[in-house]
Amino acid sequence: MVKKEIKIQNIVASTSLEHDIPLIKLAEALPNTEYNPEQFPGLVMRIREPKTSALIFSSGKIVCTGAKSMTKVKESIKGIIKNVEKIGIKVKIEPVIKVQNMVASGAIGMDLNLNELAMKLENTEYEPEQFPGLVYKLNGTRATFLLFSNGKIVCTGTRSETKLREAVDKLVVNLKKVNKK
Question: All domains of the chain, ordered by start, with CATH?
Fold first, then answer.
């Protein structure tokens, strides 16, 4: 039995407040923002609790990053709405939050021969002179893994915790198949 442990490190999620937002007014009203429209069209808002950052666009679209759970994503979006309401904008909708990407790290409890995996698995990239990890794109999923010889892994590309866990399970199955060959 392989001991797997995986922990979400970052969730990138987007939503829309479906309301135009005057970014200059928001930047002037709030201390935890950066807005430099000559360099980038969005306003950066840093949120202390939960520790996240958000890009806010004048169209009302928002990209939130840094949360480690969906609960924290929702808390961040609520905090952003409170901040936007401080400048007199009433958000009348319940924003629909869409996960764009999840990044997770962990271990699969087995040592890996990365040279062998690079030869036997499809969709891999491995250049040990440049980076000690093997990149493995998992067929039939959005998941991409970084695999290390000590069994540590990083997974990116999934959009839900369920899909993340399924991808890790599928990874372990594929690795066991290679070990039997």
Answer: 13-99 (3.30.310.10), 108-180 (3.30.310.10)
Among residues 5, 18, 107, 12, the alpha carbon closest in space to that of 53 is found at 12
Nearest of 114, 120, 116, 179 to residue 152 by alpha carbon:
114
- Structure-block tokens of residue 3: 């001991």
Q: Spell out a b/e string for 126-141, using b for 16 or more CB atoms within 10 Å of the CB, else e.
A: beeeeeebbbbebeeb
pTM of the model: 0.92
SS3 of residue 64 by DSSP? strand
State pLDDT tens for residues 46-66: 999 999 999 999 999 999 999
Per-residue pLDDT band at 4 (split at 50, 70, 90):
confident
